[in-house]
Specification:
With about 400 residues, this protein is an alpha/beta fold. It is built from 13 helices and 15 strands. It folds into 2 domains: about 140 residues, NAD(P)-binding Rossmann-like Domain (Rossmann fold, 3-Layer(aba) Sandwich), CATH 3.40.50; about 220 residues, Dihydrodipicolinate Reductase, domain 2, CATH 3.30.360.10. Helices cover about 30% and strands about 20% of the residues. The strands form 2 sheets. A 9-stranded mixed beta sheet has the order 14-13-12-11-7-10-9-8-15. It has a 6-stranded parallel beta sheet with strand order 3-2-1-4-5-6, sandwiched between helices. The structure holds nicotinamide-adenine-dinucleotide (NAD).
């Protein structure tokens, strides 16, 4: 480990999330990294920091003050800023989602592949990849402990958001400003964990309701049916309009069933693989005998700090990134496919046609007549300004 080197980091976009990252870096929370510049077109936002401040990302990237940048801007800007930074030889940690649509992800990955320095690191803030339950489940699938996966159901309806939330930030919840709703803003984490643990499906049928619970034009309720070439089927349900919400992931495999809900990780293990038992037993109704396995573990991993520390170690010591940005295209593709299916009323086959999706999205943005209501003062703004842990809601 290289103890003497330090990474000079600039944060681009210091709104809610970027300010959190910038404060952590300024306070020395991330070992061997320090905040050396910030950038935001909003003067009040950038003036909160006592490091060189820039209005325009191009100036920060060319200032010579940074080795690496965190991009925490609205989603459409992730693409041009990342491409610019990578072309200049800088390391990049990008907030989720990697981009709004698959075609933009492809451009970012092409820029990374053409990077001037082979050692450049390009990673994404997928902090839930550090959570022990998902790591354990991924391992159980990879090692065959769970057997071949037959069915996946994930209900993620605990992303509750209010009208006051949607009114904040002019870019939010519009086709033109954000490029989507719950699939683009809240669910990139779930969709990334999904593809990370189970891989991408081959066919997707999505059902979305647009502005069902809020005065917005994008989706705030989603049900998707997914099929894999292996024969496995899956249902993914999410919304920002349900309270109290649920977060329950149930995975049925040949060798048993895993349920993740709240702080519970339960594994009911079949003594004999389900299909083999069904073929060989003389029983007519009795399922295979099971063992109930309790796997004690913490729900939360090292999250944002873990991804930061790993990013710094990836740059300084050559450690493998936990969430390489090149993998970020998959969750974007899955979210895009669900939306495209809902718009067309058809099953979408993956790989998604990136050009057709971009065209359909641009048409929605161009023909939108949606008028965003005026922002309402939010009662939790003061708490956030005083340093409340905003990441608890992410
Ligand atoms: N990983 C997580 O836990 C998590 C949580 C929340 C948000 N996010 C992500 O962080 C990003 C920002 O979200 P937010 O909630 O902080 O939004 P926000 O609206 O609070 O902040 C965005 C900031 O970017 C600034 N900005 C806009 N265009 C810019 C540009 N071209 N260059 C520099 N700055 C620019 C805005 O002025 C604003 O201050 C999004 O990608 C979002 O999905 C991640």
């Amino acid at each position: 480990m290289n103890e003497n080197r330090h990474l000079r980091v600039g944060v681009i976009g210091v709104g809610s999330m970027g300010a959190f990252h910038a404060k952590e870096l300024a306070q020395g929370v991330v070992a061997r990294a320090r905040l050396t510049a910030v950038c935001d077109p909003d003067r009040a936002a950038r003036d909160r920091f006592e490091v060189p401040r820039f209005e325009d990302s191009r100036a920060l990237l060319r200032s010579g003050l940074v080795d690496a940048v965190m991009i925490a801007t609205p989603h459409y800007d992730h693409t041009p800023i990342a491409i610019d930074a990578l072309g200049l030889g800088l390391h990049v940690l990008c907030e989720k989602p990697l981009a709004v649509h698959k075609a933009d992800c492809e451009k970012m990955i092409a820029a990374y592949e053409a990077r001037p320095q082979k050692s450049q690191v390009f990673a994404e803030m997928f902090q839930h990849r550090t959570d022990p339950p998902y790591r354990k489940l991924k391992e159980m699938i990879a090692t065959g402990e769970l057997g071949e996966v037959r069915r996946i159901n994930w209900i993620v309806t605990d992303w509750f958001r209010t009208e006051a939330y949607y009114r904040s930030g002019g870019w939010r919840a519009t086709w033109r400003g954000e490029g989507g709703g719950v699939l683009l803003n809240q669910c990139p984490h779930n969709l990334d964990l999904w593809q990370w643990m189970f891989g991408l499906p081959s066919r997707v049928r999505g059902f979305c309701r647009f502005g069902r619970y809020h005065d917005i034009e994008v989706e705030d309720e989603v049900t998707a049916y997914l099929e894999y070439d292996s024969g496995a089927t899956a249902v993914f349900v999410t919304t920002t309009g349900e309270a109290p919400g649920t977060n329950r992931l149930e995975v049925a495999g040949e060798r048993g069933k895993v349920v993740l809900e709240g702080d519970r990780f339960s594994f009911t293990r079949n003594e004999m693989a389900m299909s083999e038992y069904s073929r060989t037993t003389s029983e007519r109704f009795t399922p295979p005998a099971v063992w109930n396995v309790t796997i004690p573990m913490q729900t939360a991993g090292s999250r944002h700090r873990g991804i930061w520390q790993n990013f710094v170690s990836a740059v300084l010591d050559g450690e493998t990134p936990i969430a390489p940005a090149t993998e970020g295209i998959r969750s974007v593709e899955l979210g895009n496919a669900i939306l495209h299916s809902a718009w067309t009323g058809q099953t979408v086959t993956l790989p998604l046609d990136a050009v057709a999706y971009q065209r359909a999205l641009e048409e929605r943005a161009a023909t939108s007549r949606y008028q965003k209501p005026e922002p309402a003062p939010a009662t939790d703004d003061a708490a956030r300004a005083n340093g409340a842990d905003i990441t608890k809601s992410f």
